[in-house]
Amino acid sequence: MELTGKLQGISRDMVTGQCLVTFAVNDSARVVEQSAELRDKELNIKATKYHKPRSLDANAYHWALCHKIAHALQTDAKSIHYELMISYGTPLENPDGSKAVISVLKVVNPRRAGIYARKIGSGSVEGKEFDHYLLIKPSHLYDSKEMAQLLDGTVYEAQASGIETIPPERLKRMMEALEEHERRTQKKQENKSM
Prior knowledge:
three-stranded antiparallel sheet; alpha+beta
């Protein structure tokens, strides 16, 4: 069961000493329906900050352009996507809001591990050479603003490769439709929580 909602409170059971975490969820009917099968069972629990879903149209357009750019440059779409993520992607943030940075031995390539990382420097410690990377958030976690930034970069790179892109007004309408969808979704969630 995966839900959206808000953290309402945290308390401690005086008998067991366990923390009790209370959430106000947006889909109460589903919780009631599915909670019986989960009661008294060991669960994996993960609470993360809500992100508005990105537009599937925008995502599909990004990948269509990746394929066209790859064809023009005689490479593969995944490589183009990776390079676009590094150039135009949103930096990953730590829980405190700072940017996530890693340092790895110079011989290590973060891309081989499937990590989006933009090189930001290098250094050495005790004779060992290191590269420093700013981690980039995976695009499946992007909200509409982050997806728009990536898509703007994708369109720019496509045009630089001589690839025809949709007219700016159509792209603008696509992004406006996404924003409107997100506003309606947010309003529905707010109404459900009342």
